[in-house]
Amino acid sequence: MKTRIVALLLVAAIASSAFAGCKGHQTDADDPTQGGTITFAEPTYKSFYVDGMELKLPDLFQREDSNGNIGFFDGTYAVFLTREAFTVYPYLQDMSLEEYGNHILNASGIDATPKVIDGLYCFEYEAYSLDKTTKHNFFVVLFKSNKACWVVQFAAPFWNASPMRSKFISWAKMIKIRD
Question: Kind and range of the H or E element at 157?
């Protein structure tokens, strides 16, 4: 189990390399030398369904699975899902979210402090891309349903992690699990 958790968290860090060099939603108006005003429309969302979980993300996100790992990317940000079914890992069924979070942190060696934000059990950690050129921040939210534990990792380039935290929390609060 320890190997699986470490592998899952490392997969997220490795997959973040895919968007390491992207500029995302940058426009000429983002360049202070160009002047101008930026106005942002409220994003429209689309739903993604994965094994009983409904995840709503802005329309720019696309699902891109790799080697059995579930990921969603928009060019700058990423979301990774991991579902650990009780039929495969029955001992997880008796764990609280706090115990599950501590289990993940201990098994992976990640130095993070679990906390509850807006009713979400979460923690944050940082990791570099494979080529060690880009640092990313991962905002991790844990869920537990009747059939599984879920790890949802929201990833942002480190330079833009703070402004994205509120969006990640908002997106996490829209998650619905139906099992």
Answer: strand 148-157
According to DSSP, the β-strands at 115-117 and 176-177 are unpaired
- The CA-based angle 82-126-44, given to 5 degrees, is 60
**For residue range 99-146, what is the model confidence (pLDDT) as tens digits?**
999 999 999 999 999 999 999 999 999 998 878 888 999 999 999 999
Bridge partners of 45, per DSSP, are 58
Cα distance between residue 72 and residue 48, in whole Å? 9
Residue 128 phi/psi, 5-degree rounding, is: -95, 155
Q: Which residues contact 175 (CB under 8 A, 6 or more apart)?
A: 53, 54, 55, 56, 141, 143, 152
Cβ(176)–Cβ(54) below 8 Å: yes
Three-state SS for 176?
strand
Please tell me the distance from the alpha carbon of residue 176 to that of residue 162, in angstroms, as a whole number. 25
Query: For the chain, what's the residue count?
Result: 179
Predicted TM-score of the model (pTM): 0.78
Which run of H or of E encompasses 55?
Answer: strand 53-58
How distant, in Å, are the alpha carbons of 6, 99, 107 from that of 103?
11, 6, 6
